[in-house]
Amino acid sequence: MRLRPRTRLAALLGLAALAILAGPARAAEPAPMVEVKVTVARLSDRPDAIAPDAAGLYRHLSRDFRYRSVEILERRDFRLRLDQSGSLRLPTGRWLHLKPKRLGDSGVLMSVEIEGRIRTSLRIPSHHEVVIGAEPYEDGKLVVSLEPRF
Amino acid sequence: MTACQLVAADLEALHDGELSRESTAAVRHHVSACPRCAAELEGLDAVARVLRERPEPAPAPGLWAALAPRLHEIDASLPSTAPVVHPRPAALRSFPRPPVRRRTDAPAWRRALPPLAAAAGLAALALLVFGRTPPAQALNVVRSLDTFGAPVMVMPEDANGATVIWLLDEPAPDEPQDGEGGHATAP
Fold first, then answer.
1. Average of pLDDT values for A90-114?
2. Which pick of A16, B67, B78, B142 has the fewest CB atoms within 10 Å?
3. Cα–Cα–Cα angle for B162, B167, B172, nearest 5°?
């Protein structure tokens, strides 16, 4: 079958348009990831100095609480897709569960649970820190800090 | 999974205006027929209203009076900032000073470079400092909270950009009722 030049040109243009439209649809967008920096610390009245890597946490808490010692017990960086859970066993034996559920202009909507202590839904902007004074631990208090980045 | 459970995750997004038009219509349709979800949505609105109407925290009345004398002390303890002038060595005094190239000799674009670079640096610094997090007043981090009956304090974001959720330990019946053994101070 021989096509007239004008018809052939129209067919080529149509194919090109289809290719342009189909291109972005075919290239699947990467699923959004949320990095969550989790810090577990113990606050107490021990005469220890504030650990240098705990200075930021101490700054957040010193306004309202008078603990003299902050000791970092564990740090963990999670990389989670939406609706993917991350879990961490706390020194008290309880589990911490995190699950980013939705990303929006005002931050990531994330469900956070420390089994038997707290179940909460938080909308956290990137780089904003949430500090949870969770439960008594040894001679002080166990604190969990969360900082999502996306 | 019930319809309420399916819609529950979308109520927050509906409240924040993040749903598509179709999803908004679907969720609103469910909410209009479900008193439980309607109450949940109303609760979110109520929390947002309370936080919006929260008065701006004012500094303590005696703060400046306490701070001012300390500023004077610090100022007095700092070394003088007067420029140090180094005399020319005696052996060089008989030689004429080399000609100094005036700034006006440079082309205009070159003279404009330092202030432009400084402005760009300031803009980058401002972006770094203020661009990372939205203003504190706009934050409403805690959307729902269940502490299994334990008393809790929520301290909205402080000047350092952190939200604190503090579970208070239930004192034993024979302990004094001052909370946290005297560690916590009411916000």
1. 94
2. B78
3. 155
Give the position of tokens 């090109």: A16
Which member of B145, B164, B184 has the closest CB to residue A120?
B145
Residues from chain A contacting residue B165 (CB–CB below 8 Å): 118, 120, 130-133
Q: Which of A14, A30, A11, A34 is nearest to A22 (CA)?
A: A14
Specify the pLDDT at position B44. 83
Q: Does B97 touch chain A (CB under 8 A)?
A: no
Q: Write out chain B in H/E/C secondary structure.
A: CCHHHHHHHHHHHHHCCCCCHHHHHHHHHHHHHCHHHHHHHHHHHHHHHHHHCCCCCCCCCCHHHHHHHHHHHHHHHCCCCCCCCCCCCHHHCCCCCCCCCCHHHCCHHHHHHHHHHHHHHHHHHHHHHHCCCCCHHHCCCEEEEECCCCCEEEECCCCCCEEEEEECCCCCCCCCCCCHHHCECCC
pLDDT at B62: 72
pLDDT at A75 over 90: yes
Residue stretches of chain B with pLDDT short of 70: 1, 54-61, 63, 67-69, 72, 74-106, 128-138, 158-160, 170-187
Whether residue B187 lies within 8 A of chain A, CB to CB, comes out as yes
pTM recorded for the entire structure:
0.55
